[in-house]
């Protein structure tokens, strides 16, 4: 057994050691106590009451894993006696276990009780948050009912908590941390008339997060509390409500009250939804007041907020005031705010002030008012400005809206701030459309991913009848688009670039009108300058044209100008019904319309001497499938230069055509020459059988005549009719040619032959088995003299005369 330890408990103190997890099977470890008769008894629980002393030990070597202890002390703080020094941790000699100290401090119900924390100051915990070192303070009020004021850790900014009628303070410490003192002292105070007062010494280096008592469950009904903030010199404080809930009030209203320096005793009363003050230069109080709430409602009051400091030197010593006059602007609101930051970041570097004691990190200026503002700021680049103008009309008879100038109010645009966006929301009456006109600073479309070179640009979109949003994209001045008619609601966002300056950016040259209803989703009026090229493409370029959209371009062609339209690219949609279509038509009475469907190739480049229409309609398609995109260009030139260009193009085309014809002729001749190579003779008995057999054609006998022997038989002689219907054949050497006509024509007519009667019964000299024998004679045959031009009749008569 281990040696015994002694523990003596003082007055009004109770110590209880018990199992850490009651009701579960504990390991083999008990706490053993020496009784008065020197006997040892062991159990899993020990209670030591006020004024008692015991000797004890544990039956295991790791009791901290099995047992916890609670030390509870009651302190009465009355008029006659109230300890004013730091509360000690008693009794001494406690075992090293996870320990909870509880101080129940009571006082008269009409008195206040102050709990002061010197080292360290406390930091209020958010719900479910724990302390890094596991040393946690808990403070509750005991006036009428137990109200949890909050849980706290060290290393914070809360220096004192004052309650009415008493308090309960707990301190939880792990077994392995040795605490030397409680870290707080108590003090009797006068009546505070509130549930509690929390004093906060603000730290310039970090924001402070605070919550209302019982957060997030709900602040007590018809109750109030106060935070007192101590602001160090040369600093100003700003408050931001991060989260809050409203009760269902039966009487009065939940609100906050600010007691600001130099405001005498008159508080500044605000609702939770209001913009809270900022830039408060000295100590101030914040009071939270609840109403009489409906007991049956589940809604209750709760508040979680952040307070932070700003150094006055950083915020600036030289202040310039700016007048903002919005009296002539209806439906406008201007918001000035910090650039996007996390709510848990350090304090903003700039404040916007309406008066010295009313500075906020963000400010909204509404229409029909006049403001005078100034900035307490080190870098104005940390602020951005946005503006919105809502222009809506529900009844066309009561709304006349033509050529409304959308120039920005000079008092707004002259503020030394970056304009993040100026938005016009245009909502026309039913059966009415919107027209945007740019007379001097015509627009051009900018491809996605590229930037404008000028100081300003527009992002334009519209809302279709089905609720879809169609995006025109980025448009910059310096182009050819002078009008855009939109079928339904339009949103125009003006943005500025880094190169923007006040005078140039104010000249928007944008006029807005409500016009009679149009059936197209968009109508663009385009007026290209002479000798320029303009690229145009369909809306929603990145995602593709929405189904069933109809777009028109009115291309203006001045006199003595010619426009060449060229389609550069087209993405074919996957149509469920009908077709997408491109149609072109010159704006003259005799002009014909050129139509092109999505299953046809893009139209060839077209020349127009008059203004013309380009119409594109999309079909019904699935959003997941490929969508329609069309890109085309318009090149504007003078008539002479256009004619010259046309002549050059025609001449080049003619030369190319002539060259192709020459190449074809050469190829054909080469092919025919190859086909005319000397072929091997082929026997065809039908060719000779058509000739009537005549005796006495040759003056020589069969044996002496070589006319029946052929070096080669030309196919053109035998198959001339089939192989060479039109071209003449040049006679070859050693080829028998019985006539002078065109080879390949109809067979020659046999010349008349005069037969002479002979006494001899000599057989016909052509023997059948030798007539069709080619170069197969066994003996040498004399060569022919090659004369084949003697007519047969003359040769016969000469032989007869001999």
Automatic annotation (TrEMBL):
<keyword id="KW-0472">Membrane</keyword>
<keyword id="KW-1133">Transmembrane helix</keyword>
<dbReference type="InterPro" id="IPR056268">
    <property type="entry name" value="CUB_CDCP1_1st"/>
</dbReference>
<feature type="domain" description="CDCP1 second and fifth CUB">
    <location>
        <begin position="422"/>
        <end position="500"/>
    </location>
</feature>
<feature type="domain" description="CDCP1 second and fifth CUB">
    <location>
        <begin position="85"/>
        <end position="187"/>
    </location>
</feature>
<dbReference type="InterPro" id="IPR056965">
    <property type="entry name" value="CUB_CDCP1_4th"/>
</dbReference>
<dbReference type="Pfam" id="PF23665">
    <property type="entry name" value="CDCP1_CUB_6"/>
</dbReference>
<feature type="domain" description="CDCP1 third and sixth CUB">
    <location>
        <begin position="520"/>
        <end position="630"/>
    </location>
</feature>
<dbReference type="Pfam" id="PF25142">
    <property type="entry name" value="CUB_CDCP1_4th"/>
</dbReference>
<feature type="region of interest" description="Disordered">
    <location>
        <begin position="778"/>
        <end position="802"/>
    </location>
</feature>
<dbReference type="InterPro" id="IPR038811">
    <property type="entry name" value="CDCP1"/>
</dbReference>
<feature type="transmembrane region" description="Helical">
    <location>
        <begin position="644"/>
        <end position="668"/>
    </location>
</feature>
<feature type="domain" description="CDCP1 third and sixth CUB">
    <location>
        <begin position="195"/>
        <end position="301"/>
    </location>
</feature>
<dbReference type="InterPro" id="IPR035914">
    <property type="entry name" value="Sperma_CUB_dom_sf"/>
</dbReference>
<dbReference type="InterPro" id="IPR056269">
    <property type="entry name" value="CUB_CDCP1_2nd_5th"/>
</dbReference>
<dbReference type="Pfam" id="PF23667">
    <property type="entry name" value="CUB_CDCP1_1"/>
</dbReference>
<keyword id="KW-0812">Transmembrane</keyword>
<feature type="domain" description="CDCP1 fourth CUB">
    <location>
        <begin position="322"/>
        <end position="404"/>
    </location>
</feature>
<feature type="domain" description="CDCP1 first CUB">
    <location>
        <begin position="5"/>
        <end position="77"/>
    </location>
</feature>
<dbReference type="InterPro" id="IPR056266">
    <property type="entry name" value="CDCP1_CUB_3rd_6th"/>
</dbReference>
<dbReference type="Pfam" id="PF23668">
    <property type="entry name" value="CUB_CDCP1_2"/>
</dbReference>
<protein>
    <submittedName>
        <fullName>CUB domain containing protein 1</fullName>
    </submittedName>
</protein>
């Amino acid at each position: 057994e281990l040696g015994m330890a002694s523990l003596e408990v003082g007055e009004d103190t109770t110590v209880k050691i018990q199992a850490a997890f009651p009701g579960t099977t504990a390991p083999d470890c008990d706490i053993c106590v020496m009784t008065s008769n020197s006997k040892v008894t062991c159990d899993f629980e020990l209670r030591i009451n006020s004024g008692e002393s015991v000797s004890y030990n544990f039956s295991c070597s790791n009791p901290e894993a099995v047992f916890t202890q609670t030390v509870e002390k009651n302190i009465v703080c009355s008029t006659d006696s109230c300890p004013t020094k730091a509360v000690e941790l008693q009794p001494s000699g406690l075992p090293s276990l996870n320990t909870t100290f509880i101080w129940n401090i009571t006082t008269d119900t009409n008195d206040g009780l102050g709990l002061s924390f010197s080292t360290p100051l406390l930091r209020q915990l958010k719900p479910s948050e724990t302390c890094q070192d596991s040393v946690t303070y808990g403070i509750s009020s005991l006036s009428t009912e137990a109200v949890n004021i909050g849980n706290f850790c060290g290393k914070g900014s809360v220096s004192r908590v004052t309650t009415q009628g008493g308090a309960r303070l707990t301190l939880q410490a792990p077994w392995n941390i040795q605490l030397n003192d409680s870290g707080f002292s108590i003090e009797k105070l006068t009546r505070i008339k509130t549930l509690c007062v929390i004093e906060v010494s603000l730290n310039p280096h970090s924001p402070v997060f605070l919550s209302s008592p019982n957060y997030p469950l709900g602040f007590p009904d018809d109750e109030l509390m106060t935070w007192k903030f101590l602001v160090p010199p040369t600093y100003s404080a700003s408050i931001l409500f991060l989260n809050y809930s409203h009760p269902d009030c039966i009487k009065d209203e939940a609100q906050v009250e600010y007691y600001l320096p130099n405001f005498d005793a008159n508080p500044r009363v605000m609702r939770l939804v209001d913009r809270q003050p900022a830039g408060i230069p000295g100590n101030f109080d914040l009071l939270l007041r609840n109403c009489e709430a409906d007991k049956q409602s589940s809604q209750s009051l709760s508040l979680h907020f952040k307070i932070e400091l700003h150094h006055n030197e950083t915020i600036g010593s030289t202040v310039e005031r700016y007048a903002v006059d919005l009296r002539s602007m209806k439906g406008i609101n201007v918001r000035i705010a910090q650039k996007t930051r996390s709510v848990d970041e350090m304090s903003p570097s700039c404040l916007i002030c309406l008066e010295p004691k009313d500075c906020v990190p963000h400010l909204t200026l509404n229409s029909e008012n006049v403001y005078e503002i100034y900035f307490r700021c080190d870098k104005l680049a940390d602020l951005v400005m946005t503006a919105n103008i809502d222009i809506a009309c529900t009844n066309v008879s009561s709304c006349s809206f033509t050529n409304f100038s959308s120039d920005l109010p000079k008092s707004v645009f002259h503020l030394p701030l970056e304009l993040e966006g100026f938005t016009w929301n245009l909502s026309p009456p039913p059966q009415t459309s919107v027209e945007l006109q740019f007379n001097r600073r015509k627009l051009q479309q900018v491809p996605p991913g590229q930037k404008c070179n000028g100081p300003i640009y527009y992002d334009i979109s519209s809302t279709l009848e089905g609720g879809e949003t169609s995006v025109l994209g980025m448009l910059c001045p310096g182009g050819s688009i002078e009008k855009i008619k939109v079928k339904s609601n339009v949103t125009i966002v003006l943005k500025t670039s880094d190169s923007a300056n006040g005078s140039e950016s104010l000249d928007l040259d944008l006029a807005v009108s409500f016009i009679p209803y149009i059936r197209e989703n968009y109508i663009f009026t385009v007026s290209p300058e002479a000798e320029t090229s303009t690229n145009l493409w369909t809306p929603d370029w990145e995602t593709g044209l929405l189904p069933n959209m109809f777009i028109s371009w009115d291309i203006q062609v001045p006199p003595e100008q010619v426009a060449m339209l060229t389609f550069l690219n087209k993405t074919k949609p996957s149509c469920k019904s009908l077709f997408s279509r491109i149609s072109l038509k010159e704006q003259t009475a005799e002009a014909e319309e050129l139509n092109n469907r999505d299953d046809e190739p893009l139209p060839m480049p077209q020349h127009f001497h008059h203004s013309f229409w380009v119409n594109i309609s999309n079909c019904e398609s699935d959003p997941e499938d490929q969508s329609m995109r069309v890109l085309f260009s318009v090149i504007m030139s003078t008539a002479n230069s256009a004619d010259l260009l046309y002549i050059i193009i025609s001449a080049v085309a003619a030369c190319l055509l002539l060259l192709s014809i020459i190449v074809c002729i050469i190829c054909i001749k080469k092919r025919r020459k190859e086909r005319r190579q000397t072929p091997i003779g082929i026997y065809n008995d039908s060719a000779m059988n058509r000739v009537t057999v005549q005796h006495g054609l040759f003056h020589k006998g069969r044996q002496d005549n070589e006319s029946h022997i052929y070096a080669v038989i030309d196919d053109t002689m035998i198959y001339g009719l089939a192989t060479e219907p039109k071209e003449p054949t040049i006679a070859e050497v050693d080829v028998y040619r019985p006539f002078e006509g065109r080879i390949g024509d109809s067979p020659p007519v046999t010349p008349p032959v005069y037969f002479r009667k002979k006494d001899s019964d000599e057989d016909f000299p052509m023997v059948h088995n030798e007539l069709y024998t080619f170069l197969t004679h066994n003996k040498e045959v004399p060569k022919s003299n090659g004369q084949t031009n003697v007519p047969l009749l003359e040769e016969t008569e000469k032989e007869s005369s001999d």
